[in-house]
UniProtKB/TrEMBL annotation:
This is DUF6268 domain-containing protein. Pfam families: DUF6268. Keywords: Signal. InterPro entries: DUF6268. Residues 143-274 form the DUF6268 domain. Residues 1-30 form the signal peptide. The lineage of its organism: Bacteria, Pseudomonadati, Bacteroidota, Cytophagia, Cytophagales. It comes from the Bacteria.
Length: 378
């Protein structure tokens, strides 16, 4: 009898050890890192909010939030065709030997409360072109090759969990976009403003969706269009992250430190181009300059492209990750419009041939210790 009691006591003392051992051997597939993470770069971030108390747009399984991003993208040689839409200009056809983009972004939490998040973002982008013939003797392309196209911007995102079921996001962004240099920058000429508002529902830790509207340049010109957010994790491996119609992405969680994505995105850019040499529109019958039109000194360049892409994100060390992306770019438009006269007439209609592209990205995320502290019960 004493032996049985002794054995039972030993077994009870050993139970905590076996429980700890069992917890340490949970398969990696059942673990998700980080807990419902935000994506401030997409302006749908929520930060680390206690999900038992407040609803958020993020879901379990999403990749870590990005605080600082360094991104470089490159496309190989592709064909360029430009058709003049007004008399007095010429058509153009050649190869672009280089189209590259450098993007640097940073996000800073200004206010981090369970019921309210304020995130300040800054960005610098530079798009470069090189053409086979230099100079091209085509005013538009000589301009952008020698000076490049730059974007300098700042944004403020407000993330407001309303209750356990609802949330909303408001973002406003201002950017200076064009071929300016520091010596000739005029804010009123180059300023571009965009904004968005989304209201959503958190159905579960793995499903959140919302509807709203965006005012921006995704489709080349400033316009308002509807937006539908849909974030859902189906199981320990698969999920979807979408802000339709701008982008839809399927996600595969290979491990807590390795994620794969596939989908499409629509990207729009709007630049102001100051011409070195004035361009004169002419009467098609007489060949003389139009008396009611001022010579062109400024053009508005509207660029829209669709990318079909695959992406891999991987942790390098704790708070340092890298991303590798590749796919196919379809250029929908690269058109120049009159910014000198009030009619905003299309001046040049350009088409870029489709081409593959590749990009490399290094980004900084919150350290794991910080995430654990942020997700701890309050």
């Amino acid at each position: 009898m004493r032996t049985t009691v002794t054995q039972r006591a030993r077994l009870l003392r050993a139970l905590p050890f076996f429980a700890l051992l069992g917890a340490a051997t949970v398969p990696a597939a059942a673990q998700v890192f980080p807990p419902p993470a935000p994506t401030p770069g997409d302006t749908t971030a929520s930060g680390a909010i206690d999900q038992q108390e407040f609803a958020t747009p993020s879901v379990v399984g999403m990749g870590p939030s990005k605080g600082l991003i360094f991104h470089y993208e490159r496309m190989p040689t592709f064909k360029v065709n430009s058709d003049a839409q007004v008399v007095g200009l010429q058509d153009y056809s050649a190869n672009a030997e280089k189209n590259a983009r450098l993007v640097i972004k940073g996000y800073i939490p200004m206010l981090n409360r369970p019921h309210l998040k304020l995130i300040l973002g800054v960005n610098y982008e530079r798009e470069e072109f090189q053409f086979k013939q230099n100079p091209t003797n085509y005013e538009l392309y000589d301009n952008i090759e020698n000076k490049a196209l730059k974007t300098l911007g700042a944004q403020l995102a407000v993330i407001r969990p309303v209750n356990t079921d609802n949330w909303y996001i408001f973002r406003i962004k201002g950017e200076l976009s064009g071929d300016y240099t520091s010596s000739e920058l005029n804010v009123t000429d180059y300023l571009r403003v965009s904004s968005e508002f989304l209201y959503g529902w958190k159905r579960s830790p793995t499903f959140s969706w919302g509807i709203g509207a965006q005012l921006g340049y995704t489709f080349g010109r400033q316009s308002i269009y509807p937006a539908v957010l849909y974030n859902r994790t189906f199981n320990n491996r698969w999920g979807v992250e979408a802000l339709f119609p701008a982008r839809v992405t399927m996600r595969y969680n290979a491990s807590p430190r390795s994620l794969f994505f596939a989908g499409y995105s629509v990207d729009g850019f709007n630049y102001i181009i100051k011409l070195r040499n004035e361009l004169t529109r002419k009467n098609p019958e007489t060949g003389l300059a139009l008396s009611d039109k001022s010579p062109l000194r400024t053009l508005e360049l509207r660029e829209t492209e669709v990318k079909f892409r695959g992406r891999w994100e991987r942790e390098i060390y704790d708070f340092i990750w890298f991303g590798v992306e590749g796919g196919y770019r379809y250029n929908y438009a690269f058109d120049a419009f009159d910014r000198t006269n009030a009619d905003r007439e299309k001046i040049v209609d350009s088409k870029f041939a489709g081409a593959p592209y590749a990009s490399l990205e290094i980004f900084i995320v919150p350290p794991r210790k910080f995430l654990k502290k942020s997700s701890a019960p309050r």
